[in-house]
Amino acid sequence: MKTIFRSLLAAALLTGTSVASFAQSAPAAPAAADTARLTLDASVVNAVNTQSFYLFRQAVQPLIKQMRDKKVVALGEGTHGSAEFYKLRFWLTRILMEDEGFTQVALENTYADCYRLNEALHSRTVGDLKPLMKKHLLSIWQNRETEEMLNWMHTYNTSHLRKVELRGIDGMFGTTAAEVLQEQLARTTPEITALTEQLVQHTQYHDKVWTNLNDRSIPFKRPEMLANGWAGYEATEKLEKALTGIKLTRRQAPVVAGALKNLHHYFDTFYQPKVNKQESSRDSLMAEMTRFLVRDKGSKVIVWAHDAHVSRRLAVPGDNNGGGTGKFLERMFPGQYFVLGSTTATGTVAATTHRFISPLSPMASYPLEAPVAGSWEASLQGLTPAVFYLNTNQLQAADVRRPHRLVGYGPESGKDSYFPFKLSEAYDALLFVRQTTAATPL
């Protein structure tokens, strides 16, 4: 599994070693997992009909009933590139929005970049979304399956008073957030204008550093990168203080607050090692952004992110940042967090060979390796329904710690992609699709 962005960066920051020297594979799972054949009572297997949205809606009503009263519902993915995971999560999202009062869907994508796309979803005529998707979404979201959901959201907004919103919970890039602040604060004070200009420069520089990590011929200038990152953090702090006495309109205030939070998270990678002598936790920051999205009374959100993030338990051995985003969200919203994981056994997956995922990372189709013996995936593929979900609290004695596959944005799906899981510790429910296909690039 490709390491998450913070691990690569933190290693460079804290050790001074060149980023290019760091491997992208997470440590192999310990051998202590149970590999005995799994036997499940048929009553825990809930078959799902995926032939049409309407048949699907009927089949998942018991699952929707569990989700409807939660403040945060996370829809996970066992890979970043399976078409069926995008399609079925879209259908679940549509049901929750149409029937259960959810108005926000938040992607594992930079907050301010989703804000740009969301603006388009509220316009009278949206036209072709592809250029905006290619500019503002990581390449894992640049597929026809995601485009279908975004087009549905726009159509919904044109015919309903209650609008639906696209959000982002990540802070991987900063330029768009800085540009949003520059636009929103253009008519304030010379000091604020100067600070937003500085932030645009710092974020443009730093975003380029991240994308250049994919080109081994470009040298990694650590001292320069560190100086720029810290300067960006200081400029963000100064801007926030300068805004204390500025009165913003009701429309400006939430936009500015979100863009500022995006930049705080973006530069946290530099703040934590320098000030607190510790690594920045991307999972805790994504949870904090999720809390920001549901700060208003009655607001609810659907989160789309990798299983490794939405899981309630530590996904990768050696990760000392407190566990997945789901673990933080459970602490923030006790009893108000529901997480559905999803996994597959065979098929193809869209992935990139880039070391650092960006909107420019090319995606291609790769075959999934056969599940390892004794894994959850190997056991579940032997059950009769091709697509089904199960409630993990019904597994009881069958819920032993066994290998569970987590495929990131890279093409690797072999034995090093498995980690020992008791499903009930990670998810409320698990959606299984026996054979999946690679997501379709735009």
UniProtKB/TrEMBL annotation:
Q: Which UniProt keywords apply?
A: Signal
* Superkingdom to which the source organism belongs: Bacteria
- Secretion signal, residue range per the UniProt entry: 1-23
- What InterPro entries is this protein classified in? Emycin_Estase (IPR007815), Hydrolase/PRTase-associated (IPR052036)
Q: Which CDD domains match?
A: Ere-like
PANTHER family linked to this entry: ESTERASE, PUTATIVE (AFU_ORTHOLOGUE AFUA_1G05850)-RELATED
Q: What is this protein called?
A: Erythromycin esterase family protein
